[in-house]
């Protein structure tokens, strides 16, 4: 029996690093950030960054990828915060903005980069000395994301539209916006930036920068629906508004939208169906304090629900620990959101060893 209990608690201890938790729409993060990449001063040393525009997390390998825009490189940092010295993974880029890391190959995942300076999305594979252009020209390319079929989506900032490239047909098509038309109409965009594909619904979410809103386009839709910010395209700093949303992530389970609110220097959470957002980090004015941002550009979550935010003019990436994953309602059976997978594993352990 002692052996059973020992095994049980060893597995319990290890589970947080193996299983992704479900983030509650009412979760709380420490609002004091820890700098895990960059020094706050622009530079090109391994410890420094210069206006990082995009970040992506590889959970299985516990790695943070950073698009170090003004240094024209991709930097790699460990998630365990054992060092703040970055490793240059790719260099000689042309103003890379957002990035997407396809982790099918753990040793060297395929990296897709929205190459703003070269007007294209590039694909970098193991051992490559240069990137391969994906799809047609993407003028003023700012965002990139993949769906479960490995179709590549790209934000064409200068032409106010989102493009999709299919690896099966080698064809590039427009899936949101109207070519060279901008404005706050539901079928238009205005200088789109970060994008996200919900693999459970195939919905496309867009940080519609100059319309100051997040638009959701269902598959094959002819227009979008505003899920965060003002549908009229007006900027603001109150809870119902955004001012130049720059990046986003969507919780595919709860449909909660997390937004990088650039000029308000804050990260906003919009619950599914909400008419206003909540500030989960920043919102304390522009600055370089541990609870402030100066042009936040992107965000990501690790599999334990911790929040990471890249900042342009602070030249750093900040870490915000998840400190309370309480549900949005009180329950007599549960006080913490956790994945169904965790419960299944625990059940298997008990049935196997007892």
From TrEMBL:
Q: Which organism is it from?
A: Rotaria sordida
What residues form the membrane-spanning segments?
A: 7-30
- Record-linked CDD domains: NHL (cd05819)
Q: What is this protein called?
A: NHL repeat-containing protein
Source organism superkingdom: Eukaryota
Which keywords does this Swiss-Prot/TrEMBL entry list?
Glycoprotein, Membrane, Repeat, Signal, Transmembrane, Transmembrane helix
Looking up InterPro entries in the UniProt record yields:
6-blade_b-propeller_TolB-like (IPR011042), NHL_repeat (IPR001258)
Instruction: Provide the organism lineage as a comma list.
Output: Eukaryota, Metazoa, Spiralia, Gnathifera, Rotifera
Note the segments forming the NHL repeats.
Answer: 40-80, 282-323
Q: Which PROSITE patterns match?
A: NHL
């Amino acid at each position: 029996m002692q052996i059973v209990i020992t095994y049980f608690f060893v597995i319990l201890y290890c589970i947080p690093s193996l299983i992704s938790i479900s983030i509650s729409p009412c979760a709380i993060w420490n609002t004091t950030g820890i700098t895990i990449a960059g020094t706050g001063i622009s530079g090109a040393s391994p410890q420094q960054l210069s206006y990082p525009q995009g970040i992506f997390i590889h959970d299985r390998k516990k790695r943070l990828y950073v698009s170090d825009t003004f240094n024209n490189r991709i930097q790699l940092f460990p998630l365990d915060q054992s060092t703040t010295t970055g490793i240059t993974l790719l260099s000689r880029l042309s103003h890379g903005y957002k990035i997407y890391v396809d982790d099918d190959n753990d040793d060297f995942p395929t990296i897709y980069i929205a190459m703003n300076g070269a007007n294209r999305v590039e694909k970098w594979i193991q051992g490559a000395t240069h990137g391969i252009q994906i799809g047609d020209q993407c003028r003023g390319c700012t965002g990139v994301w993949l769906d479960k079929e490995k179709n590549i989506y790209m934000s064409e900032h200068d032409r106010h539209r989102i493009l999709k490239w299919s690896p099966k047909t080698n064809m590039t098509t427009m899936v949101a916006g109207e070519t060279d038309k901008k404005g706050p109409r539901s079928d238009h965009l205005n200088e789109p930036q970060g994008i996200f594909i919900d693999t459970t619904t195939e919905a496309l979410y867009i940080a519609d920068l100059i319309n100051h809103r997040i638009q959701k386009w269902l598959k094959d839709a002819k227009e979008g629906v505003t899920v965060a910010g003002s549908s009229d395209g007006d900027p603001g700093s109150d809870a119902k508004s955004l001012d130049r949303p720059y990046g986003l992530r969507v919780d595919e389970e709860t449909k909660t939208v997390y937004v990088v609110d650039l000029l308000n220097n804050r990260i906003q959470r919009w619950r599914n169906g909400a008419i206003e957002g909540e500030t989960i980090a920043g919102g304390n004015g522009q600055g370089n304090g541990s609870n402030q941002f100066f042009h936040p550009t992107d965000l990501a979550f690790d599999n334990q629900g911790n929040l990471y935010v890249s900042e342009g003019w602070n030249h750093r990436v900040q870490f915000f620990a998840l400190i309370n994953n309480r549900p949005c309602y009180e329950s007599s059976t549960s006080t913490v959101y956790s994945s169904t997978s965790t419960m299944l594993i625990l059940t298997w352990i008990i049935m196997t060893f007892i």
